[in-house]
Design a protein that fits this description.
By secondary structure, the chain is of the alpha+beta class. 18% of the residues lie in helices and 26% in strands. It has helices spanning 96-103, 106-114, 126-132; strands spanning 3-5, 10-12, 16-18, 27-28, 51-55, 60-63, 72-74, 79-81, 85-90, 134-136. The termini are close together.
């Protein structure tokens, strides 16, 4: 087995999509991303902004607020999400569903919670997640 860094197999996606191209079916916010790895619900509304973050099928979405809620979702469709959600996309040579299962482990969320900043609504540190999170393959 080999220990590798998260940043070696994926990247954070910062692409944007027009909110006019979204519906309540393909918009994900921290509100409709369910805790304890429970998937998603239909969004209550779309954001008032003109653009939001874009995600594609096979991306991994993780709430960056209150990581102890363990909100993670493997996408099977294209859409948009709030800025409080991290969009991870694997490199071409790495199987995205495998990474999703690795990141769904409690160890990842424990690490994210320990390195989060803030008290009322702690936020994860993106740099820490990519540079310090290591796992075995």
């Amino acid at each position: 087995m080999k220990k590798i860094k998260l940043g070696d197999v994926c990247k954070f996606v910062a692409e944007k999509i027009s909110v006019s191209n979204l519906t309540k079916n393909n918009y994900i916010s921290t509100e409709n991303l369910l805790p304890n790895k429970g998937g998603i619900n239909l969004a209550n509304s779309l954001p008032p902004a003109e653009f939001t973050k874009k995600f594609c099928s096979d991306d991994i979405l993780i709430s960056n607020i209150r990581p102890y809620f363990k909100k993670i979702f493997y996408t099977t469709f294209d859409g948009g999400c709030s800025n409080d959600i991290l969009v991870l996309r694997t490199n071409r040579n790495f199987y995205p569903k495998f990474l999703y299962y690795v990141l769904s482990e409690d160890d990842f969320f424990n690490f994210a919670t320990k390195t989060a900043k803030g008290t009322k609504m702690p936020r994860g540190n993106r740099v820490d997640k990519l540079s310090r999170t290591k796992f075995f393959i």
